[in-house]
User: Fold this.
Amino acid sequence: MADLRLRDRDALVTDEELIFRVYGYSHPPKAFICDPEYGPSNLYQSKNPKAYRSEDKKIYYKFYSDEGLRFVQQNHPQHMIWHEPLGRKVVGVHQEDVKRTRRPDKALQSILQRKQRDALVAALYSLLNLVLERSSLSPSDFGVFGSLLHSFWHPSFSDLDLIIYGSNSVTLLTETLKTLYMEANSPLRNEFENLQSVKQKHWEFMNYSLKEYVWHQRRKHIYGLFHDQRSQRTIKAEFEPVRAWGEIRNEYNSKTKLRHIGWVKMIARITEDRESCFMPSHYSIEPLKMLEGLRDEKIEHVVSFVEEFRMQAHKDEVVYIEGNLERIGAVKPYYQVVLTYGPRYYEQVLKVMP
Assistant:
């Protein structure tokens, strides 16, 4: 089998009909690091009312939080792959176990070719046309994820989950959305324009308040509310940044060793934020003050696998950071703070200092 070429947010389906999301861009040979997204009802069922999905007669349940990780570890360990730099197994799928793939860009093309449009597809057309009319973007710059990618959507309840491909396109899109949010007669507004957006949100982060979260989310501009005239429904619309093919490089190196050093608390200045919109998010930093943890070595980067901290800070802003410290390499090591799933998850934070 020829090597599959996949990128972040592409989906793959295994023989068991488990649906995984490809995570990031750096993967071991002939395998993909993934997040488990959906399990078929014959293998997994959830009591969470939000988890139910259906595709024709097939029923699936969405994994939330670490449910997918625990399910795979306990029931399908063949989908735990060895990560040499980390020295441990992570959730992933070997290429030989991929039954089929789903590409967000191809899925959008298929939806746009539909002759019959239900309420959600019609709203998707309207939203996409609005953005295209107000910018130099083209349909090929976009894809879909979530229910639209997997044909799970409900015409009256599903959200509009879009992908925007490439750094330049992300910049054009966010500038366009920012302008549309400001116009009084626009059908688009910022989802996080006030605290109403988090009124029912369950919140567990310990060093990051809901008020701080809303402030940070508001200025990212990729989270909108679209009022669809046809259905008279206000629909959540998210635009997920993903690298264009020409921006992708596989940095997985089996010879590179990562060592967990401990916990760190620090104040730093962001020196580069160009790759903060993608997952995982990368920031270059200049440490200003160490509050806890390693003090003698320079910490150069923050890498976040947590979506709450994507596009979180801009160049030259001063931030507070709390998370896991890693050492990369042995001969000429460098250090980075990693925000990721695991112990002390809700203590982690990256936020702009007031």
User: Anything to note?
Assistant: The longest helix spans residues 167-182. The chain has a mean pLDDT of 94. The longest strand covers residues 258-272. The helical segments are 67-75, 104-112, 119-133, 147-150, 167-182, 210-218.
